[in-house]
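Self-study notes.
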Amino acid sequence: MKLENVMKARTSWDVVCTVDDLVPESGVAVWTEDGPVAVFYLPHRLPALFAVSHTDPFTGKNVLARGITGDLKGQPVVASPLYKQHFNLQTGQCLEDEEVAVKTYPVLLDGNNVRVEIPATNKESAVA
C-alpha cells in the first residue's frame, strides 16, 4: 500500500521594511521569497497599507512601486508608470482590462515593521 504525505502550504509574515521606509501616497519595492512586491502607504485610507506584485503584467518590468497612486470610483489604485494601466490595490484587478490582474498580498503594521504575508511553496512527497 502506497501512502502519500503532502505537506500543507504555509505562509509566513515576512518583515519587508520599516515605517521609516514608507513615503505617503507612494510605493516602495521590496524583495520577498515570492519575488518583488510593491508596498503602498496611503495614509488617508483605511486600511492604509497595500501590497501587490511589483511586476507590470503588460511589460514584465518591475515598476509598479514607482506608479502614481490615486482613487478611481472609490477604489485605491496605482497607475503603471509605463503604459498607465490602473490596478486596484485591494484586488489587483486591472481597470482597463478585466482579464489582467496583479497578485495581491496581505500586509500589516507590526510595531515599526511592515509585514507581508508570503505563501510558502507547495511541496509534495510520496512515501512508499
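Second protein, same conventions, sequence then structure:
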Amino acid sequence: MKNILIFGDSLTAGYGLPASQAYPSLLQEQLRQEGYTEYKVLNGGLSGDTTAGGVHRIDRWLNEPISIFILALGANDGLRGIPARETTQNLQEILNKVRHAYPEAKFILSGMEIPDIVPGRYAAEFRKLFRELALENNIHFIPFLLEGVAGNRHLNLPDGVHPNAEGQKILAKHTWSKLKELI
C-alpha cells in the first residue's frame, strides 16, 4: 500500500460529521472508483490544531511510510492571529520533518485564507505565506482549500465555520484536482 497522509485540523478531521463524510474518506472512495486501489488515505486531522501543535504531532505519523503528504494546517493560526512568520516557520518545519523521513514523498500544500474584512495587513500576509511556501519548496499547491465553501451557509454546519457533508465534497474536489497529478 502507498499511504497518502492528509495532515490538518478540524477541516480534515471532518468536525461534526461521521468520519465517512470527511474529505479524506471521500478521496479514498474516489481513488477506489478510479482504480487506484494501492493507495490508502490516512486522516491526520485534529480539531483545534495549530501549526505549532502540528510540529510536535507530526512525529508520531512518521512511523507510517508516506508516499504523498498533504499539509492542510493553518486555519486556526489565522483565527487566532498568530504572526504569519511563526506560521510559516512551523509549516516549513513540518515539511522538513516529512521530507527528511521520506525524501521520495510527493507534497501538496493546502492554502488557507482569512477574510479581507480583518483589519490591517494580516489577511494579505496570511494568504501570501502559503503561496510563498509552496514556491520555495517547489510543491503542488491548492490556493484556498475552502474556496466556494467559506461564508456559504448552505455548505457549512450551523457554526458557520466547519463544512457540512456537501462542503466536504468541495474540499475533496479541490484536493483531488492536485492529487490526481501525483498518482
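Instructor comment on the second fold: Residues 2-180 form a domain with the Rossmann fold fold (CATH 3.40.50.1110).
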